[in-house]
């Protein structure tokens, strides 16, 4: 009888520990997945990205290097999808899904890149030869710091806002 009580007690203790171990809250990812959607004229626009935070780091020219292709978010390359042919900064971009990259420049005129290879991890295997479109965009300072990177689609195009910089991209 004593052996049976001990066995039951051990089994119950083991189950309690196991349940508590599995009940731990899932940790929020450092750069959670996010999506921005909207309609510009008759084109449906979808931007899928991972949203890193500033976390008291120097972003531009340090964490994100100047004059190098950047995935415009975290983790996988940001994707940009349009349901119709559009004009970006005055240049044609056919309907489809693209990786979206930025080339930050200290001058404030950055390059926005729409690459035909939509499934990429970061910019590690980026190939310029697969670019569908490259356009120059002029950055704007933000009034207040944007802690988490965010994309916003509006009637004139979209913006990528992070830290103290906004990158507006015009779409017609």
Q: What would you say this structure looks like, in words?
A:
The protein starts with a helix and ends with a strand. The chain has one helix at 2-22; strands at 33-40, 43-50, 78-82, 86-88, 91-93, 96-103, 109-115, 131-138, 140-154, 157-170. It contains one helix and ten strands; from the N terminus they run αββββββββββ. β9 (140-154) and β10 (157-170) form a beta hairpin. Strands 1-2-3-6-7-8 form a six-stranded antiparallel beta sheet, with no helix packed on it. A two-stranded antiparallel ribbon has the order 4-5. The protein has a two-stranded antiparallel ribbon with strand order 9-10.
Q: Provide a count of the helices.
A: 1
Please count the beta strands (DSSP E, at least 2 residues each). Answer: 10
Question: What is the helix/strand order?
Answer: HEEEEEEEEEE
How confident overall, as mean pLDDT?
88
Let me know the largest β-sheet.
6 strands, antiparallel
What structural category characterises the helix and strand content? mainly beta
> What's the alpha carbon Rg, rounded to whole Å?
23 Å
Strand coverage percent = over 45%
């Amino acid at each position: 009888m004593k052996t049976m009580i001990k066995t039951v007690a051990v089994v119950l203790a083991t189950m309690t520990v196991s349940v508590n171990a599995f009940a731990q809250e899932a940790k929020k990812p450092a750069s959670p997945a996010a999506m921005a959607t909207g309609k510009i004229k008759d084109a449906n626009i979808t931007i899928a990205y991972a949203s890193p935070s500033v976390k008291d780091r120097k972003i531009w020219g340090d964490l994100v290097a100047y004059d190098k292709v950047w995935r415009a978010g975290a983790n996988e390359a940001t994707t940009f999808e349009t349901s119709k042919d559009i004009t970006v900064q005055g240049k044609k971009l056919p309907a489809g899904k693209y990786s979206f990259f930025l080339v930050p420049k200290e001058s404030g005129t950055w390059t926005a890149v729409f690459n035909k290879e939509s499934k990429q991890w970061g910019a590690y295997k980026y190939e310029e030869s697969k670019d569908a479109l490259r356009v120059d965009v002029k950055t704007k300072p933000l009034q207040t710091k944007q802690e988490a990177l965010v994309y916003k689609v509006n009637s004139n195009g979209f913006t990528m806002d992070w830290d103290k910089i906004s990158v507006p991209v015009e779409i017609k």
